[in-house]
Design a protein that fits this description.
The complex is a heterodimer of chains A (289) and B (381). Helices cover 78% and strands 3% of the residues of chain A. By secondary structure, chain A is mainly alpha-helical. In chain A, helix 2 crosses helix 12, helix 7 packs across helix 9 and helix 9 packs antiparallel against helix 12. The mean pLDDT of chain A is 89. Chain A has a single domain, classed as Orthogonal Bundle (MetI-like fold). Chain B has 381 residues and is α+β, with helices and mostly antiparallel strands. The N terminus and C terminus of chain B are likely disordered. Chain B contains 8 helices and 20 strands. Chain B starts with 12 loop residues before the first strand and ends in an 8-residue tail after the last strand. The chains are: A mainly alpha (289), B alpha+beta (381). At the A-B interface, helix 8 and helix 9 of A face helix 2 of B.
Chain lengths: 289, 381
């Protein structure tokens, strides 16, 4: 009896920080945000419960266009990150050996020692009209006048892929590392070539890592604020900046909350769809990450 | 050294290696190995870990390139062919069955790569599974199978491609003892049934002896001896083979007299043995030699009486009895020097009442003992 109550106390104490964190920082704000999102201001200081905020989102094309654009751009950024990160991860996990392997992994990690803000400013220094690349091109005589490379979708994409790279490389390296070399050798031994071994053995094995990396990158990109705003400027039309506008500029917390909730729903929906399409479960992919 | 079958008619040889050498930096993993394997036989390469047998197998499979030498399969050099084009297939140490595929998909994998028509793949896969008695296992996942069943799937996956040579890299290593014993017999039967040349590498001498038609004993990158299991056991040509294949009592000593092929040897603590000389080296008076006597070659009598009919006589007291049914043994302490000797107890049960401390007289003929010169390289790992 005594022993049992002690174990119980240990368990409660162990769980306490997690429960407090979950309640105070995740559940409470979301409940509050949801309450905010379903009330409508009908007169100063008088509110009523309604779905008017959500209705406004669907009636104003700018809003849902922005969300759709953000989602599509995020999917594109995720796919691009995957395509760039996969060969890198494969090289780190399967081809590089010993010291080279750890150095390469460290090189992927290195940019993340400075804050995202500093990294993004780094890109701005390179790409702006009076920036390094523009000057270099002029000096080399490739162009006549200064070139502005900021404030377009391609630049936003570059910034997003760069920011997300590590979150794709880490789960991929982990899963590829766990693939025994003998499976790859068996694949060749039984007559497979590079392409078929990749398609039949390596990718199916790496699927949990691919999906887990994609989920993380997609959610980070969808909810990114700094990169699209700084590199894309006003043209970026990122949904997070709409939320920011509602909260800070317009002081319309009700609509901002509704937007926040819609973003949450869209991202959950996309993740669910991605898991269904790749026939993975959330637990199997999270075990890899 | 060349196999005794090297002179067999051409065309009857499935796999031949000529002067194969593999260096890893300064380390010589495989050192000038030549052998040929007659078609349809079970050939084992037996050696301790690190002797180079895995490197040798991987060179045959094509995963490693030899530093020099040639590999010839069915009369054609395959050195320029990558692993996916070679007419050999390999059963990996941990089998490497693809976990993301069903059993049938695993077996079908190689056929698909060859571009075989879908309908034909189905029938050939089923046929292959039938032959390893796993007819119903097709739709199962690999992790639903037992260790022995997986073994058979791994073999079926290779055999469905009808390779000229099947390479097996210690596939029984991961199994428990009982299953391993069972699989030894089964592998031998499968080989017989398929009629394909099997090249099997192992560090377990009983696997090699039980299954093989021919065994090569490998040490430090070289073949010490190639022969039938009986030859290796009864006529070892080097001290390494005598020590590695089967159990032996060993003594180190100096030759004090020699007459034709029988040597008189004295150990440093005063024991004198008469033994047959063996091995390729000429043994002469004064040479340091190692004497090997198998536990089953020793004749036991109770008491200390010395039987002059035998060339070697010792007395010893029983220190422990290792009962193991028909393979029961006794550990004895030599009365003169205190050295340990292992002997097999006769299966007649004559010594069934032996207890610790009993004194026995041990004797054996000189033809049952083998001695090898040790001043040349016979290091063991």
């Amino acid at each position: 009896m005594h022993v049992r109550s002690t174990t119980k106390l240990t368990l409660i104490l162990l769980l306490a920080p997690f429960v407090i964190w979950l309640t105070a920082l995740v559940i409470l704000p979301h409940v509050d945000m949801f309450m905010l999102s379903i009330r409508e201001k009908i007169a100063p200081r008088t509110y009523q419960t309604s779905f008017a905020n959500y209705q406004e989102f669907f009636t104003e094309p700018l809003y849902w266009n922005t969300l759709a654009r953000t989602a599509v751009m995020s999917i594109f950024a995720t796919i691009l990150t995957l395509f760039i990160a996969f060969p890198i991860s494969y090289y780190i996990a399967k081809i590089a050996r010993g010291k080279v392997k750890s150095i390469l992994f460290l090189l992927c990690l290195l940019p993340f020692w400075v804050s995202e803000l500093v990294r993004t400013f780094g890109w701005m220094i390179l790409l702006r009209e009076t920036g390094i690349i523009s000057n270099l091109l002029q000096w080399a005589g490739v162009v006549d006048g200064p070139v502005e490379m900021l404030y377009n979708d391609a630049t936003v994409m570059v910034g997003l892929v760069y920011t997300s790279m590590l979150f794709m490389v880490v789960p991929l390296v982990t899963t590829l590392d766990s693939l025994d070399d003998s499976y790859i050798e068996a694949g060749y031994d039984l007559g497979g070539n590079g392409f078929t071994v990749m398609r039949e053995i390596v990718i199916p094995h790496a699927m949990p890592g691919i999906v887990s990396g994609c989920i993380v990158v997609f959610m980070l990109t969808l909810g990114n604020y700094l990169t699209p705003i700084l590199l894309g400027g006003k043209n970026s039309l990122w949904f997070t900046s709409q939320i920011y506008n509602q909260f800070i500029t317009r002081f319309n917390w009700e609509l901002g909350s509704a937007f926040g909730f819609l973003l949450l729903i869209v991202s959950s929906l996309m993740v669910w769809l991605g898991l269904k399409l790749s026939r993975q479960t959330l637990s199997s992919t999270m075990a890899e990450g | 050294m060349v196999s005794s079958n090297a002179l067999a008619a051409p065309g009857a040889v499935d796999l031949e290696c000529r002067n194969l050498v593999k260096h890893f930096g300064d380390f010589v993993a495989v050192d000038d190995v030549s052998f040929s394997i007659p078609a349809g036989s079970f050939f084992s390469i037996l050696g301790p870990s690190g002797c180079g047998k895995t490197t040798l197998l991987r060179m045959i499979a094509g995963f490693q390139e030899p530093t020099s030498g040639d590999i010839i399969i069915k009369g054609r050099s395959v050195l320029s062919e990558p692993p996916n084009k070679r007419p050999v297939n390999m059963v990996f140490q941990h089998l490497a069955l693809f976990p993301m595929m069903t059993v049938a998909e695993n077996v079908a994998y190689g056929l698909k790569r060859q571009g075989v028509a879908k309908a034909e793949i189905g029938t050939r896969v089923q046929k292959a599974l039938d032959r390893v008695s796993l007819s119903d296992a097709g739709p199962k996942r690999v992790d639903q199978l037992s260790g022995g069943q997986r073994q058979r799937v791994a073999i079926a996956r290779c055999m469905v491609l009808d390779p000229d040579v099947l390479l097996l890299d210690e596939p029984l290593g991961a199994l428990d003892l009982k299953l391993r014993e069972h699989m030894k017999v089964e592998l031998k039967q499968l080989q017989h049934q398929f009629g394909t040349t099997f090249v099997y590498i192992t560090h377990d001498q009983s696997e090699a002896l039980v299954m093989s038609d021919n065994v090569a004993v490998m040490n430090n990158g070289r073949f010490e001896q190639v022969g039938t299991p009986q030859e290796l056991y009864h006529q070892p040509r080097t001290a390494f083979v005598a020590g590695f294949v089967g159990d032996s009592n060993r003594w180190m000593g100096k030759v004090i007299d020699i007459d034709n092929n029988s040597a008189k040897i004295e150990t440093s603590d005063g024991l004198v043995f008469v033994s047959e000389t063996a091995g390729p080296d000429q043994i002469s008076k004064g040479d340091r030699v190692e004497v090997f006597v198998r536990p089953e070659a020793v004749t036991l009598t109770r008491g200390t009486s010395v039987d002059r009919a035998y060339d070697n006589n010792l007395t010893g007291s029983v220190t422990s009895l290792l009962f193991n049914g028909a393979a029961s043994r006794a550990l004895l302490k030599d009365t003169k020097t205190g050295g340990a000797i292992t002997v097999n107890l006769p299966q007649t049960g004559e010594f069934g009442d032996l207890v610790q401390g009993d004194v026995l007289s041990l004797s054996w003929q000189r033809t049952k003992a083998k001695c090898f010169r040790t001043d040349i390289a016979t290091q063991e790992s």
